[in-house]
Amino acid sequence: MQTKEAIKFALTVSNGAVLSVIDEMSAAATTFPTPNGGCHPLWVLGHLTLIEGTIPAILFGDKNPAAEWQQYFGENSEPVADASAYPPFTEVREKYLQLREHNLNLLESLSGKGSRQAG
Length: 119
Known about the structure:
Blueprint: H1 3-24, H2 41-60, H3 70-73, H4 89-109
């Protein structure tokens, strides 16, 4: 298995695992995982969305398409139980899926030398 295929496989498997758990909790998206708090499913999904948007920003200097959510899901944000304090769950999930798909396409477009191929 080539490195690119291994990365694609890992991203696809992890995506399925994460989304299955997140989707199970969609009706209780701001439920904290412990009585002492933690990061609820909506915050986790939003945080992952920011990370997906950061990948092309780091590699190529592109703008993170989820940057406006930094205040909700960024490194120094604190999860809150009020769902109205966040973008809707379905919007966050859709943005995550779009950015993950974009990154898989980006991975596919990379040559063995790590640069984008003309397309």
